[in-house]
Amino acid sequence: MTEERARYYAKVLARSMGRTFYAVRSREGRFMAVQIPSDDCEILGKVTPPRSVIENPQSRAEQGRRAA
Helix, strand, coil proportions of the chain in percent (round to 5)? Predict the structure, then answer.
């Protein structure tokens, strides 16, 4: 995965899950989007969810029931 892709995934995950995600480079040089970065990785970016997601949280189960 490229650094750009890791940042994109961090942004999408933060919005969809309502949690902070980080774009990181691992010790081995791989780029990833993670929720809890390890001590031995380089943090490239931090993405927090929009306020609207934080203020109005819904679990995936609730969303699934509403869709059914």
Answer: 40, 20, 35
Of 10, 5, 17, residue with least CA distance to 46: 10
* In the chain, where the domains are located: 3-67
pTM for the predicted model, two decimal places: 0.73
Q: Decide if 21 contacts 35 (C-beta within 8 A).
A: yes
61: left (phi over 0), alpha (psi -120 to 50) or beta: alpha
CB 53 within 8 A of CB 18: yes
Spatial separation of the C-alpha atoms in residues 62 and 45, rounded to whole Å = 30
In this predicted model, what pLDDT tens digit does every residue of 26-48 receive, in sequence order? Answer: 999 999 999 999 999 999 999 99
The sign of the torsion formed by the CA atoms of 1, 10, 34, 29 equals positive
Residue 48 pLDDT: 93
